[in-house]
Amino acid sequence: MRLRVALVVSLGAAMLLSLLFVPAVRGKLAALGAQGHSTGRVDPPPSKDRVDIASQLAPPLPRLAAPADPAAIQPPVSTSFFGWAFLDESTGAITGSANMATGTNTTESMVKPWIAADYLRQLDQQGETPTETALSDLTKMIIHSDDEIAQQYYEADGGDAVIQRLISMCGLSNTTVFPAWWSMTAMTPQDAVRYGRCLDNGTAAGKKWTPWLLDTMKHVEGGVQDQISVTMQGGHWGIIDGLPANLVPDTSIKNGWTYYASDGWHVNCLAINPAWVLNVMVRVQGDAIVPSVPASVCQSVAQQLTIIPKYRSVSHAMLAP
Description:
This protein is an alpha+beta fold. It folds into two domains: 2-43, no CATH class; 63-307, Beta-lactamase (3-Layer(aba) Sandwich). 39% of the residues lie in helices and 17% in strands. It contains ten helices and eleven strands. The chain is globular and about 55 Å long. The two termini are 68 Å apart.
């Protein structure tokens, strides 16, 4: 009798446990089935620590940099003179052609931003503000390369003294004044990038007018074909045409060019970016009526100095450290 009672009690307890256990098992199996019948694998729930790398890393942008071998930078056409210099603003280092410190070219219109800067700085030092007419004149002198206006302000500010101040204030070591003729100022590529840095760092125009000057130099107008007159000349070509698109909006430019019957085109290209200053000087024989060939040299040097970083996209997700 006791044995029978014990057996009945044991069977009852087993049945009760099974009723409690089976629904829980079924619930877990149902949950597993709902998460994926095709793989039979249960993925962990989404975590706030998961990071999609592809959505956070943008491709690196092209930039200009000094080359490992400066001698490898060569003009794409035959030239009678070729020189260039590149100033890295982060280090102050100047790299360039073998003749960057000795070879000279006439500056031509490349010196016009200095004429404007010299006028504005001196006026500000006297506590005066330029008239609207003066600002309009200086704007035309830079964006249209107006020679007559340049001559007017050059003479008003002392003639040769204007270029002498350029040399002393900007620390130029191999630039020569040509008496009573601003465009014939002789300058090396090395001095040209120092001149560009002088425009950029506020020494030339002063703190107040430097932003205006650099912005005006970003709006130079006219293509290489637009050599219309001494008051309307095209200067938006050269280095600017060889830059990656991402660098163009922040780059100020001023080119200088004149054709001489004796030795052809004298062309200089100056570009100023917050990260660097680049100058290219070139003389090309020939009787072309526009400086398209020397302009292509400036463009080519900018292209040769361009670094396009390699980029490998990452599309998988990783756990944040």
